[in-house]
Amino acid sequence: MDNVPAPSLHEDEPHHNDIAVRLNWLRAGVLGANDGIVSVAAIVVGVAGVTNQPGPILVAGAAGVVGGAISMALGEYVSVSSQKDSQEALIEKERRELLEEPEEELAELAAIYQAKGLSVDTALTVARELTEHDALGAHLSAELNIDETDIVSPWHAAFASAVAFLIGAVLPMLAILLPPAEIRVPLTFAAVLVALAATGALGAWIGGGSKLRAAVRVVVGGALALIATFSIGNLLGASGVM
């Protein structure tokens, strides 16, 4: 037994927690880009329904890009801050319980492993060895599925959300401003729907779902948004309100 090498993690191999964190970030980025595409496209197409002049379209689109990016960042910051506060409160509670009731916590940890199929003696041995190695980490993982080192930064989440939104918003802005006026709107429709199909399929691939179903769902929703805003713009323009 003395010759058995100690188990080690291969640094060049992905592990479950790392993959989950990366996929969550990628999924959030895809959703942020999707929001940027749809919301900014809806704004510029709505304005294009009133006028073909690039000035008003640019102003409205720029306002949508800036306002949307800030809104996405703020929403993500508030959401992740709440999650972070909750996780930190749970960690502090667990740390206090370990100091005040170590025997009860050891019994609780052993009971968790016993419930997973270990014998009473083995579960107690595992609980004792994990407690000696890292009591807080063992309890956070077994009881709460929390890793103290994996708490997401609200600032990082806000920045990533804003950047993803801005990346998505670039496409409708370019599609509505660069082409000649007579093909501006149909080209924007086409470019946006193709981009939405791609983001929908990518999001489904990340989550392991049906890429076709997700792409169709996102494209239909985006098409409805564009049709609605363009129709409203046309009606306002025809009525003389604008």
Question: Describe it for me?
Answer:
The chain is an all-alpha fold and 242 residues long. It has one domain (21-239). Helices cover 82% and strands 0% of the residues. It has helices at 16-48, 54-100, 102-115, 120-144, 154-177, 181-207, 211-239. Helix 1 (16-48) packs antiparallel against helix 6. The termini are far apart.
Which features characterize this protein?
single chain; 0% strand; elongated; mainly alpha
Strand count: 0
User: What kind of oligomer do you see?
Assistant: single chain
The stretches of 5 or more residues where confidence is low (pLDDT under 50) are 1-16
Query: What structural category do the secondary elements indicate?
Result: mainly alpha
Please give the largest β-sheet: none
- Helix-strand topology string: HHHHHHH
Radius of gyration computed on alpha carbons: 26 Å
Distance between the termini: 84 Å
Question: In DSSP terms, counting alpha (H) and pi (I) runs of 4 or more, how many helices?
Answer: 7
Shape: elongated
Q: Give the helix proportion (percent range).
A: over 70%
How many individual domains? 1
Strand content: under 5%
**Overall pLDDT:** 83
Brief digest:
This protein is 82% helix and 0% strand. It is mainly alpha-helical. It has one domain.
SSE layout and pairing:
Layout: H1 16-48, H2 54-100, H3 102-115, H4 120-144, H5 154-177, H6 181-207, H7 211-239
Helix pairs in contact: 1-2, 1-5, 1-6, 1-7, 2-3, 2-4, 2-5, 3-4, 5-6, 6-7
